[in-house]
Structure formats: C-alpha cells, structure tokens
Amino acid sequence: MVPKIRRGSRTHGLLVYLYGPGKRDEHTDPHLVGSWDGFAPDPGRDTSPDPDPKATLARLAAALDLRVKQAGTKAPAEHVWHCSVRTDPGDRTLTDAEWNTVARRLVHAVSLAPEGDPDGCRWIAVRHAEDHIHILATMVRGDLRRPRMNYDFKKAQAECRRIEEEMGLRHLKPGDGTGAKTPTSAERFKAERTGRTEPPRETLREAVRQALAGAATEEEFFTRLREAGLRVRIRNAPSGDATGYNVALPGDRNRDGQPIWFPGSKLAPDLSLPKIRQRLADGIADPTTPPSGTSGRPDWSPPARERRSATAVAEHAASVLDSDDDEAAAHLVGFGELLDAVAQTSPAATRTELGAAARAFERATRSHVRAERADTRAIRSAARGIIQAGSALGRGEDGGTTAMLLSTLVLVALAAARWHSARGHAQQAAASQQTAQHLRAAYRQAAATPMQALRDQGRALPAAERRTYEATIRAALPEAMPQAEGSPRTEALAATLAQVEQAGHDPKALLQQAIDLRELDTADNVNDVLVWRLIRLAQLPTQPSEATRRPLTATRQPNPATNRTTTTRTAPPTPARPTGADPHNRPPRR
Length: 590
Known about the structure:
Number of domains: 3
Mean pLDDT: 86
Order of helices and strands: EHEHEHEEHHHHEEEHHHHHHHHHHHHHH
Low-confidence stretches: 287-294, 481-485, 547-590
Distance between the termini: 58 Å
Shape: elongated
Radius of gyration: 31 Å
C-alpha cells in the first residue's frame, strides 16, 4: 500500500478532478467512502429528487473550506492536504468500508483528525477506481489552529505498513528517505505520448551513473556525459568554480520549446556534484602503472584480461561485505560502478539482464551508513579497466571470462543483501536480492557455451582418468555429489581438474584451495563455482582450444607421474599454494 502526499491551495479544483473523468477517462464511479462526520454531500451519488452534481460539488467544497475562510489570514497558503493511497496490483479488492477504515487511520496517524477529537480537520475520501482512494483534507482545525503536520509522509508510511499486515495485503519494504526521486505522473504520461519507453528522469539517471563508472576526474565525467549524447550545463559561482550541473535529453522540451533540465541531485541523492566529487576524491589506482588485468596469456583480449582482474577484486569486495563492517558501505558504491561498467560493455546476449541488475542495485548503493576510511580504489579501477577495454564479444575467452566474473558478482550481490538485512535496510536488501536474480540469469546465458565445451571435454577423458577426478571431487565435496559418476554436473569440473594437472598443479590441493576461498552455501551450482575458481587460480583459459584439449584425450598417459613429467617439458611446474594463502593474490604468471 503506497501513500503519495501533495499539498495545494484549490479545494474546488481538486474536487473537480477527483469527480471528473480523469486525464485519460480512467475514473469510474467516483463516490465518497468516508468523511469527517459521515454526512458530507456526495456529488457522485446524490440521491436527492433533482440531483445537480455541480451544485453538490460546490456545497462540498464550501463545507471543506468553512474553517479556512473563518481563519482568514491565519490559514496556511497551501491549505489542501491531498493523499492518494494505492494497493499493490496483486492485492485483493478492498470494500468501501475497508477504504473508509484506511482513510480514518491515515488522517489520525498524521494528526489531521485524531480519533475522538471534535476539533479535527475536515476531510473526505473519494474512490474512483478499485485499487486506490484520494484523501482530501483542509488544514485548519475547528479551533482555527493549524494541525501539527511534522513528518506526515513518514507517519503515513508507517501506518500503511501496519494496515497491510492487519488486512492481509502485500507488505512493502519501509523506506529510509535515501531513494531516488520517482517520475511524476506528468512525466510518465508525457513519456507515453512521445513514445519513450521510460520517463527522461530515469534515462538520465542511468546515463549519469554509467558516465561516472570508473571516471578518474570531474572533467572526464562531464566528457563522458557529452559523449553519451546528453546536453550538459555546468553551474558556476562568481569565482568561476563549478557548483553544480544540469543534464537534459536531446528533444525533451517543455511547452515553450526549452530543454527540460534536471540537476544531478534531483536524479538521485548521490549524483549531486558535491557527492560526485567525494567519490572521485577516493581516486583509482595509479594511472601510470599498467592495469592489474594485463597479466596472463598474450592471446587473451583486453576485455578478457580486465574481467579476470575484476573477478579477484569482486571476490575481495564480497569478503569485505561479509565482515559486517560499516566501511563496506563504500564498497557497495564501488560495486554499483562495476555493475554499470559490465552492463555497458557486456555481450548482446547478456546486456538486458545486466542492465536490469545495474538498475536494481542502484537502490542498494545508498543508505544512512557512511564509510569514513574505506579504500575503494581497486574496485573503481576495475570498473575503469572494463570501460577502457571496450565491449566483450561474448565468444571464446571473452565469453568465458564474462561468465567467470558474473559467477562472482552473484556472490557479491548476495553478500550485499546480507549486509543490508543485518542493518534493517529492507529496500536495499530487496534490491540486492533482485540484482542477484538478474545476475544469475545473465550468468546462465554467458556460461552456456564455455560450460558445454568443458562438459564435452570431460566426457572425452579416458574412463580411468575421469573416475580418478570424480573420486577427488567426491572426497572434497561429499554432500555435493547426489548424482552418479559421469553426470553432467561433474563433467566440467573433472575436465578442469585435468587441465589443472596438465598445467603442473596438484588437482587435490588446488581444489581444496578453491573450496576454502569462501562459502559455497549460496551457490546455485557448486560445481560451476569451483570450475571458475580453479580456472582463475591456475590461470587457465576459460575455453580451451583444440590444441589444449588434444593432449588430454590422445597423448595423455594414465600414469599421473609420467603426465607431470611430460607436462613440465612445456611449462615449469608451479608448487601448490598452501591452503592458508591469501585467496586474493593472483597466482604467478605462467
């Protein structure tokens, strides 16, 4: 149940709208469901012998404004309190009597008309649709004093949460005042008329967030905005220093033909210029040093290398969120930038879901928790590296590293949900869960081809080798082996262990290290998660070429010792890293 509060000065004008056909003929059967004394005239259902709706409406307006006129100059300039209350589309239809109860409880909760107070303000509740009512009240009491209306929106929200629980309606998440401003009805109607998929406010908010992802300087941020096709206007103080900025969509104009500008603070609380400067002040990694993602095989594309580097950074961010430290609030902002960067450069197959994930997590980046000492340079650098590397093609190594990164991003989103839930941030926790759902859908799309290639490689292993690797998997994960040997769930993991051994690592030790990196309880598919961890730890290609696959099926000998000897002729063996080693350090270059 969502209350929406406005204030105005025209009682009669609002009544004309409430009892009229609506802006698009959406009003049906307008009628009163409640009033201050239960006897207010109803223009919609006038039962007099000679009904005149216009005259009845005028009498109703005069009755509501009686005390306003009596108060004279002591009455507030905007004396009309207007609150629309809407149920969720999945809720049952409330009766007129139930809506009357809702209206009475709300005017009591906000101190307009406390129950049992004969001097309460005059009010009515009009219903012209099945799913909502409009409450109109005039803010002058019977003793001609103004009501105490402090925090009326928060009080109305809290009462709606109680009404939902008592009436068996969908229980919405309580807000904390950090959400972005939603588009107005006029903005939504205009978007429909002009054929836009969403109001300009939402389009601009997403574009500004994407321009900010990984930006190193204020100048770079504004340059990205212009390159995205937005109109940008910078506000300057008399000294010449920038104090703010406005953005507008090309072609979005008002009735006078002027661009409709939105200041950053009206798009989202954290997109004002001072807040952006605070984020940029945290900096990124030293731009004079090579990006951390440039290590690895020379045939890896820049998008693939940067995604591998970002995977390790995201793994660290998940650990920070699991630590339950308030400084993790800054990593939530950095993770939001990383999602924006990945969504911009993702392959076409995953772009829709990743865009939805980035938009959903936008709500999870803001709360009243402030981080004072957090170092987010690494995660912002990862976002910058992904942006600068360009778009991934979604095939070969690009597709595999995208799936590897998405598998880790799911864990970060779930860690963010736990972090917010522990602090009672209901809306942010729900947004994090929704982000995880979109990321899982994107992961399934990105991982389909590389995981199928690994499963094919696992099926092609000699039977004796496959049984050996499956025994290793069963010993390490006895509870994760509900299926028989050779099942599709273990073929990809067995193939990865074969590659690990061919690269000179101990499969058992490296598998245990992958398991110990972090919890596996939230993983949809434990085997998939371990595949990507092994690939990252051993610096393996995510989609082996035919040349890489052939030794596993044709020239490989069943004797493991002989295999290691053969393998060391092409690559020096790397000692197995101890289990207690730092999981965030990249393995040595091979």
